[in-house]
Design a protein that fits this description.
Layout lengths: L3 E8 L4 E8 L4 H6 L1 E4 L2 E12 L4 E8 L8 E7 L1 E2 L4 H5 L2 H4 L1 H17 L8 H11 L7 E2 L2
Antiparallel strand pairs: 1-2, 2-7, 3-4, 3-8, 4-5, 5-6
Length: about 140
């Protein structure tokens, strides 16, 4: 089981490359193996989700399987560091590397972002906490081995 994760993502909103580096919990394997009874079937949280929001805010979550054991478990959150040492970005700017994708994204959502400004950075934390708090609680029947 890994004890660290290092991931780079490009934010289409920010037009920047971010690096997320996190220490994962020592008991991650145990958490991923824990089985729950959800609607009469077995399920577990066995999916690591790395999310990036505008302004570099990231969360690492342990999510449920197909049946929907929930709520998600927050493993880490913070502000990702902007990557300034990537050799590709030094040779070809991000705007050119992702030219078609960024143009489509900007065309599709640019006006909405101007009309409805979105949070940046850690302003996402209470929004995501509220989202998790509203998730149904289906992990009330853990199965012990």
């Amino acid at each position: 089981m890994p004890d660290k994760a290092l991931l780079e993502m490009v934010s289409y909103h920010d037009h920047k490359r971010y690096r997320i580096e996190v220490d994962l919990p020592a008991d991650l394997g145990r958490q991923m193996q824990q089985v729950y009874l959800v609607d009469g079937r077995h399920d577990r949280r066995d999916f690591l989700y790395f999310g990036l929001a505008p302004g570099g805010y990231y969360e690492v979550l342990l999510q449920g399987g197909l049946l929907g054991v929930s709520p998600d478990i927050l493993l880490a959150r913070g502000i990702a560091s902007e990557v300034t040492d990537d050799w590709r970005d030094k040779r070809i700017p991000i705007a050119r590397q992702y030219k078609n994708n960024l143009a489509v994204f900007d065309e599709k959502y640019g006006a909405l972002f101007k009309q409805y400004p979105i949070p940046l950075g850690m302003a996402w934390a209470p929004i995501m906490d509220a989202y998790r708090a509203a998730q149904p609680k289906t992990d009330e029947q853990p199965i012990t081995k």
